[in-house]
Structure formats: structure tokens, C-alpha cells
Amino acid sequence: MRAYNFCAGPAALPTAVLEKAQQEMLDWQGKGLSIMEMSHRSADYVAVAEKAEADLRKLMNIPENYKVLFLQGGASLQFSAIPLNLLGKNSKADYIDTGIWSEKASKEAQRYGDINVIKAATLLDAKHAITDQSTWSLSDNAAYVHYADNETIGGLQFAAIPEVAAPLVCDYSSSILSAPLDVSKFGLIYAGAQKNIGPAGLTIVIIRDDLLDQAKAEIPSILKYADQAKNGSMVNTPATYSWYLSGLVFEWLLEQGGVDAMYQTNLAKANLLYGYIDGSDFYNNPIAIANRSIMNVPFTLADEAMEKTFLKEAEQNQLLNLAGHRSVGGMRASIYNAVPLEGVQALVSFMDDFAKRYA
Predict the structure, then answer these.
(1) Quick check: is 171 catalytic?
(2) Arithmetic mean of pLDDT, 77-92
(3) Is residue 279 classed as helix, strand or coil in its secondary structure?
(4) Continuous H helices in the chain
(5) pTM for the full model?
């Protein structure tokens, strides 16, 4: 029996996807070789890549005037790629800072342009929250406005999509495909694959066509979205196995009923876990209700000295990777699409038993 994996990333993958990949590992569809051994320019692999894109477009209802790129380097490389691609004609951009990842993005962007950083994380009744947009000092003529929908480490998520005049750029690494999303409200969406899409090694970039000609002249060709779009994300050899596995995840999501169906399951998981924490004197969630993530749930114990015992016993109960990020400590349960409701039920049952024994 597989354990329940609450890792923030690389994260859980659907068992059905892993089993299919296992079956095809040595002999992909009767070809006598693994897909890892196949040329990325072969007709067979190109068909796999094109189907993955088509399935993602269907899942997210991506408009035709957007390119979908399957790139390498993780979301962190996009911290550089985005300003290099979008600040060529206007060097100003706004960055909404709500946590560690959006802060990293803004610091990297400052290498390439005039970046206006808006500190939007606050405390509300001793809980972490995001300030109202009316308090933000947005630029009049920014090339784009960047934010991170869901801060994976802190468990802080935007309650709604910001309304801004400039093209909106968003890091959706830990929340993509978890809930319905109107892609047309964005100029660019990007997401590292290793949380809710597939294995590490791949990054998805969804960019509106009219932004493809905004790059700086000095941008490396490997990072240039226009070149990648023109070459089917194959300016060089792509992360072929990660792309293939992500395609299997897209197929699995469609079989589950798509993003709408996954959202209902995700709400049930989040409501169960937050509901238990809120009703307990032994556990605490540090996030204001309006900004709670449905993917990453941080929590603390009443007695910090019990954390190591909690983690040890959780692992003994096949509940893995519940330690919070090293920068904030505490606990964190990442309940991505591939984590079943039964996993969250098992976690809550363990938490309840642990609290009764150690309170």
C-alpha cells in the first residue's frame, strides 16, 4: 500500500499515472523502447507532446490567442525569463509581494528593469493576510503586474484575481489546475510542474500572443518565448519524460471530470482539514480565513516541543512529508490534486488521536 504523501514539491502523483508509466517504461506502445529513449523530434514523440498541450488547453479552456510552452529550468528560471521577455519596450513593472516566492521573483526582476515592489502581506487579528488592492500603489504605465496566486511556503492565497490595467503575470505553480481559472484575464501564467502537474524538470508558460514581441534584445534565445513558440518548445531538447508524464496527468484529470470536479474534491479536503484545526485547541492555522490556501495548509502544535514526535508518528502511520518549510517551521500538509480525500481523512484521524494522547 502506498503512503499518503503531503510533500509540497516534488509532490504526489496519481497512482494510476505511475502505474501506466510503469507499464510503458520498457516498451512504449509496442515500439520496443522507452519514451525516454525516443527522439523528441520523432513523429511519435511530437504526437505525445501535441496531445499533452491539447489536453491542457481543454482542461483550462485556454483561448486560441495564447501560446502554451513546455519549458525547462523550473519556475525560478522564469523569474529572469519574464522580465527579459516583457521589459524590452517598457522597463517598468509592478510586483506584488506576499511571501517568499513573490519576493524572490521581484529581486530577480530588479536585475533587468525598474521594479515597483508592493508589500501586500499583513497581519489581520494576528493572522497572515493579503492587503486590499485599494491600498496598493500601482504604477501608471507598468509593462506588467506580477503576483503569486498561492504562496506555497506560507499557505497564503489570493481570494480573487487582481483587477489591474497592465497585463497580469502570475505564478500559479502550486495552484494551477486546482480550481477553475479565467485565463483570458492574464497576459502570462507560469507554473513549475512538480506540484500539481507532473514531475520536476518542466515549467508551463501560457502567454498571450501580443506579448511575444516585448523581449529585450540581449535575451538568450533559449529563454525567448517567441522562439520557443515558433519551435514548439523545442529550441533545444526538452524535458521529454516530464512532458510525457504531465500528459498522463492531464489525461487522468480529464477522466476525473476535469478541473471543476477536482475543485469540488479540493474544497472538501481543505474544508475537512481546516475545520478540524479550527475546532481544536491543540492545533492552529496562522492564515486569515479569506486568504487560506486550498493546496498548502500550514499548522502549528500548541507545544512546539512535540513537533518531532508528531512527525515521527505520522511517518509511522504512512503520512509523509508533513514538516513545514525550513524558513517557517511548524507543519504543512500539501493537499494537491493527487492527494485523495481518504488521505486527508487519515491525516485528520491521526491528528485527532495524537492530540488526545498528548494534550
Answers:
(1) yes
(2) 98
(3) coil
(4) 15-24, 43-60, 74-86, 100-109, 225-230, 240-255, 258-278, 307-316, 341-358
(5) 0.97
Question: Position of cell 504526437?
Answer: 47
The DSSP letter of residue 167 is P
**Contact predicate 310/353, CB 8 Å:** no
Nearest-angstrom CA–CA distance, 255 and 312:
36
Cα separation of 109 and 146, whole Å?
Answer: 10
- Please spell the DSSP secondary structure of 196-235, one letter per residue: TTSSTT-EEEEEEGGGTT---TT--GGG-HHHHHHTTT-S
Q: Measured between alpha carbons, how far is residue 123 from residues 27, 150, 291, 292 in Å?
A: 54, 17, 11, 13
- Residue 258, all three cell numbers: 476535469
Please say if 227 is a catalytic residue: no
Kindly name the residue from 55, 171, 252, 269 that is annotated as catalytic: 171
Active site (annotated) includes residue 278: no
Query: How high does pLDDT run on average in the chain?
Result: 97
Q: How do residues 169-218 score in pLDDT, each as one tens digit? A: 999 999 999 999 999 999 999 999 999 999 999 999 999 999 999 999 99
The alpha carbon torsion through 203, 205, 206, 210 (nearest 10 deg) reads -170
Choice among 28, 67, 97, 101 that is catalytic: 101
Instruction: Give me the sheet containing 296-301, strands edge to edge.
Output: 283-284, 296-301, 331-334
Identify the residue whose cell numbers are 503520512: 319
